[in-house]
Amino acid sequence: MPAVEIKPGVYWIGVNDRTTDLFEGLWPITKEGVSYNSYFVDDEKKVLIDLTKSFKVDEFLNQISQITDIARIDYIVINHMEPDHSGVLSTMRKIAPNVTLVGCKKTKDMLASFLGITENIRVIQDGETLPLGKRELQFFVTPFVHWPETIMTYELSDKILFSCDAFGGYGALRGAIFDDECTDFDFYERESLRYYVNIVAKYSAPVLKATDRLTDVPVDIIAPSHGLIWRKNPQIIVQLYKTWAGYAGGKTEPGVTLVYGSMYGNTEAMMNAVAQGISSVGVPVDIFDAARTHSSYILPSLWTKRGVMIGAPTYETKLFPPVAQILEMAVQKRVLNKKVAVFGSYGWSKGAEKHLEEIIAPLEWEMVDLFQFNGRPTQEDLKKGETFGVNFATLVKTE
Ligand SMILES: Cc1cc2nc3c(=O)[nH]c(=O)nc-3n(C[C@H](O)[C@H](O)[C@H](O)COP(=O)(O)O)c2cc1C
Ligand SMILES: [Fe+2]
Ligand SMILES: [Fe+2]
After folding, report:
1. Average pLDDT, stretch 16-24?
2. For residue 398, is pLDDT > 90?
3. How far apart are CA 284 and CA 346, in angstroms?
4. Going by CA atoms, what residue is nearest to atom 21 of ligand 1?
């Protein structure tokens, strides 16, 4: 894609990634893709804000060359050192050896440790400005949105916030790069939530701190480093991020995430009865087979819904491993404030429930119910399972 002018002299330059299977080597994006958005400000001083992953480098360089001589670029602002934004930095410095890199104190440390760069670095403080000629940039230090060195950059004339990972999402750009041109908003909302929970959610407190910091900053355009640029209504994505960040400590949605696994169908049979019970109360339920669904797709439901229903058989005295893995990831991502109920089949000595309690102990979820049964569930067991689902859903609905 060629560069796109956002405002006179301010350009989006970006690379759409539709071939990487795992973002951060972990999160599946095979079907959805991702974009690495970079921005160029063409003034008396010429500035690149964020770069891209070291991927389709020729395409990236050609986009810049259409607008300016790369060797003449004065500044590269490093909002974030993660290689999805800094991967092409060493190459850029070879082409523009005199370029000054702009970041905070921690950026300077990381430039040395990740890339061996120790010169031509301008360290900025929170709120500091950088005159470019007609335009001026201001920097906000926003640690842990997503790494400790993360900053955001603000252009004062057109009120553009270059927010880096914040307000971004998975999803390669599907033609439209602006919110007002976008015809598949549901896709971007879903993929922004998945991205938020996979990548940023653990740092929800810093996200809320950053959004508070920006309350008095008039923003007309939000230009993140992944996904759509928000110029029609930037408040949509700000509000979504605030709501998602708020779930870490506040009210979540009245719904149930049902994560189950089953080797020979006994726990699965019970899962259907439990789900019937939950649905009969009119509470939404997302059902995931833990062995067949990557945690990337389960975490958004776990994050947003109030109730967690776990179905897993005992496996070698422990919880069925695929279910254990999902819960371990929930612990890693600090999925807090949940009510949980557990069911599952065992053959002889049980053990799943104890293991589960050990895994989720750090999250302090409220364990409200447990239902274990021996072998294949009887009709009577299934009836109990349905009631078990009804009781849990009623509790989740009324809280
Ligand atoms: C590999 C394997 C390991 C098992 N380990 C245990 C165990 O340690 N303790 C136990 O009570 N049952 C154990 N079981 C029995 C299962 O928990 C039991 O068969 C259960 O009904 C399986 O439910 P499912 O059909 O939903 O997978 C094991 C079964 C398998 C296949
Ligand atoms: Fe990041
Ligand atoms: Fe990123």
Report:
1. 97
2. no
3. 28
4. 375
Q: What is the pLDDT of residue 207?
A: 93
pLDDT of residue 187 exceeding 80, the answer is yes
CA of 177 to the centre of ligand 1 (A): 51
Q: Quick check: 139 pLDDT over 80?
A: yes
The protein residue whose alpha carbon is closest to atom 1 in ligand 1 is 315
Q: Which atom of ligand 1 is nearest to the CA of 270?
A: 26
Domains of the chain: 4-246 (3.60.15.10), 253-398 (3.40.50.360)
Mean pLDDT of the region 216-225: 97
Distances 330 to 57, 70, 201, 362, 372 between C-alpha atoms, Å: 36, 44, 11, 10, 23
| Ligand 1 pocket, mutate which of 263, 320, 342 (most atoms under 8 A from CB) | 263
Q: What is the per-residue pLDDT across 55-106, written as a single tens digit (0 to 9) for each?
A: 999 999 999 999 999 999 999 999 999 999 999 999 999 999 999 999 999 9
71 CB burial (10 A radius; 0-12, 13-18, 19+): exposed
Kindly tell me the number of DSSP H helices and DSSP E strands found in the chain: 12, 21
Give the pLDDT confidence of 314-357 residue by residue, as tens digits: 999 999 999 999 999 999 999 999 999 999 999 999 999 999 99
Please give the distance, rounded to the nearest whole angstrom, from the Cα atom of residue 329 to the centre of ligand 3: 20
Distance CA 35, CA 252 (A): 29
Strand partners, 337: none
Q: How far is the CA of 360 from the centre of ligand 1 (A)?
A: 21
Ligand 1-lining residues (CB < 6 angstroms): 262-268, 313-317, 345-351, 375
Neighbours of ion ligand 3 (CB under 5 A): 84, 165
* Spatial CA neighbour of 391 closest among 339, 326, 345: 339
Residue in the structure block whose two tokens are 């994505």: 237
What SS3 state is found at 350? coil
